[in-house]
Amino acid sequence: MLPVLGQQFIAGARSGLGETRHQSVDAASGEALPYAFHQATLEEVEQAALAAKSAFGPFRQLSPARRAEFLEAIAEELEALDQEFVAIVSRETALPPARIQGERLRTSNQMRLFAQVLRRGDFLGARIDLALPDRQPLPRVDLRQYRIGVGPVAVFGASNFPLAFSTAGGDTASALAAGCPVVVKAHSGHMATADLVGCAIERAATRTSMPAGVFNMIFGQGVGAALVAHPAIQAVGFTGSLHGGQALCKIAAEREQPIPVFAEMSSINPVILLPGALAARGATIAGELAGSVVLGAGQFCTNPGLVIGIRGAAFTAFTEQLKGHLSAQAPQTLLNAGGLLSYQNGISALAECAGITHLAGQPQQGTKAQAQLFKADVNLLLEGHPLLQEEVFGPTTVLIEVADDAELKRALQALRGQLTATLIGEPGDLRQYHWLVPLLEEKVGRILVNGYPTGVEVCDAMIHGGPYPATSDARGTSVGSMAIDRFLRPLCYQNYPDSLLPAALQNVNPLGVTRLVNGAWSSESIVP
Amino acid sequence: MLPVLGQQFIAGARSGLGETRHQSVDAASGEALPYAFHQATLEEVEQAALAAKSAFGPFRQLSPARRAEFLEAIAEELEALDQEFVAIVSRETALPPARIQGERLRTSNQMRLFAQVLRRGDFLGARIDLALPDRQPLPRVDLRQYRIGVGPVAVFGASNFPLAFSTAGGDTASALAAGCPVVVKAHSGHMATADLVGCAIERAATRTSMPAGVFNMIFGQGVGAALVAHPAIQAVGFTGSLHGGQALCKIAAEREQPIPVFAEMSSINPVILLPGALAARGATIAGELAGSVVLGAGQFCTNPGLVIGIRGAAFTAFTEQLKGHLSAQAPQTLLNAGGLLSYQNGISALAECAGITHLAGQPQQGTKAQAQLFKADVNLLLEGHPLLQEEVFGPTTVLIEVADDAELKRALQALRGQLTATLIGEPGDLRQYHWLVPLLEEKVGRILVNGYPTGVEVCDAMIHGGPYPATSDARGTSVGSMAIDRFLRPLCYQNYPDSLLPAALQNVNPLGVTRLVNGAWSSESIVP
After folding, report:
1. Hey, is B155 helix, strand or coil?
2. Cβ atoms < 10 Å from Cβ of B14
3. Nearest-neighbour CA in chain A from B496: distance (Å)
4. Residue B501 pLDDT exceeds 70
5. B153 with B237: CB under 8 angstroms?
6. A348 beta partners
7. In chain A, which residues have their Cβ closer than 8 Å to the Cβ of B151?
8. Strand, coil or helix: A250
9. pLDDT digits (tens, 9 = 90+) for B71-118
10. Contact A447/B496, CB-based, under 8 Å?
11. How many CA atoms within 13 Å lie on the side-chain side of B44?
């Protein structure tokens, strides 16, 4: 059996001072797994934060190439984890082994993507304005700017991606790429997974000679609040509920030194079915949409939770087809018992709300989640009813029928900020409804055409973010290489001796990066 | 006499619903000027915020070149303001006409710099990952990302730069460049100036056919809080006191939808005198430093408020020379009576503090500020005494003598976040004390060598920002072209028809911008 120590990761060592233990649980059966985890004490939280602070100086001053080696070593260590690891993740989350393996590849590729970003060097944002000693009325001094990490980052693992959004997930990868040590708060739903991934990161840190404290992780309930409040922590990455994200934002704002929080929280990801598409291929869309709704038991941030169409025969026929698909779905085990309870409460609230009709889905009972379909009166949306604004995490969606284009516009205006909005349309639809796009642009982080929002490519152009409450800060993304920007800040050197400047800013451009020199982009050396 | 209407600017019109009036005051004499300003009512605050919201859609969708024309027109209108305008600014602020004219040029050049940024197009951050339909195990969809404005921005004018950090200052210029309409809260210290500059912006908006509501401005006490709390406002730019900035951050964090605040607040800008430089040119440094301390009556965010040197004969001699320079300074009129009161309170607190010695300066009396020099025991700094952490706004500075390098290091570690740190050193000093730099990098936004922090060049590489409490968010700058980044957020299009994409992302690259295409920077067209 793989060794799972169940202790905090602090400065390259393990610590288990807390007497309270938390047991890992089999998500499908509810039975205890043979893995117990010490609750981190406040002293250990402090040690972890201080370890990250100590590592910050040496780690951020490593060359980008050295940090890239570390990320690539993490990728290799993740890929070297064996079938027993996959089995443990699967038991803790009820996710099937094939999904775990796919997610692991996504996670290691994500590390490699950030290694590429580091080698490319544009994340440094190097800008140089050379001295103009003869300028009138005043000379210009030599000014050079690049970006450094903000400091230690607290990372909160997500329940629904035990690998890609957790211990070695996108927040960790982007923080480490930026030169920021991390303190991960392991998610209580997959602690053994976190422990084994933490060990993989430690092996990578050791073999690439990273400073102790570049990676730290704590276990336990309520320790996240103490972590975010600790003065050494300089930024927070979080994926989870609206309630949880708001609580962390409040703690961060009330610190003596407030810090930025990048919380990815709540999105219902509207899908807009345009008339031409419904008429031409309504049956196909119903099948595809049902697949997106129930994918991964609906436990995705980008799960389509609201489907909007214009009244008419085509939408009625589509509704019947979608009912058929969702009625026929087999029940699925959710990530944990808490998730099942939330799902039950969420669909009960929908079912009991005046103006919302249950259209399809087996009665919710037992230990698995049944897919459910509802239809809501558009007036609930127009009036801002909270049930139509907050996600129900699981395999369900809500249909909204609007009378006409004007009501469609008002319905979309009534939505809060979202991660995504999707347009399903024929080419003619997209031209005819192009007026919708500016409205959606102000509501969401990603606009999709003829696809489904589940499935988030990890690449340079991806944005997994959006206006509040989809996230706490629309200027960030938690997926894709631009995630590194969240953890960088600019620093300027004035009249600084060339030989003492950071490599990115020296005249000879030893890193070979592209720089904005006197207002023009160049990767050349500067001849002073 | 120039017409000064004294009413709010809302959606291209003027409004004076409030019965309370505020009188503009001559800064030197305290006498009332013939300009009265209606206090904005809450209804007018709402109207201004909603006007900005209405303008956001059309304004952000203008081409960057169209917004550049607007900024250039503002620059021209500012430059066309005549000597009577300069005289009014001078009367409201007690700043000499030559300074006003210099600051006006800086302000119009700042508009032109952002126009260049718009024409260059890199602020758009265009990134394209083309579809890979044959990729295994899953195809990649077409993903394209660029940045749009976050929405209406509330701008708070600063007392000390009636032009460059006020109505048409850096926050306004960068917000407008980003496509964000603004609502300016005019500073109560130069309301006639604000009115006349507001009219200049309106003329520029009219002749470049900008949407009504692209620029709005309100007058009055306490109206800023209502403005920041208004749901239409999506970000805040502020330059002022720690207390004022913290209050706005609190309001912004407690909104139903929290928004980012970029507050530039409090910095004492340490200057570190290295031994070789003191030995070689201590007398010169004393003269230069005194000039920086009293420049503009010390009313700069980057005023050097703390000077640190290592004990020894050279530092003692330097201290005597600095005493001489500061004793010989003529008193100066401050920007307003409130500033004088704050200055008197600040220097009294320093004078009365055990461990702080008054070294030079005439007794503070009358209506002008006397330059003052203090020396503080390093232990006060090491213990985190608040008097050595918060700026005294005016022509004063505090000397700190450290015993040796180790104490120098501890003293710098005890500092909070700063806009700037300055090293005065000979080439040998800079090599010998290079170990200081990583420490300073984590404390400040700009490191200067052999210069003085007053004088902030407006260019691409400048950073006027820094860790808390210098600013509320170290990731921003309020001076230089990177200020635009504060007001932009990314937006991603997935599988979107080329002809309907924003110009920046279309295959033919009609804007000719440099884009990150499949991981490589290119300004070429894409051949699909």
Report:
1. strand
2. 16
3. 6
4. yes
5. yes
6. none
7. 442
8. helix
9. 999 999 999 999 999 999 999 999 999 999 999 999 999 999 999 999
10. yes
11. 24
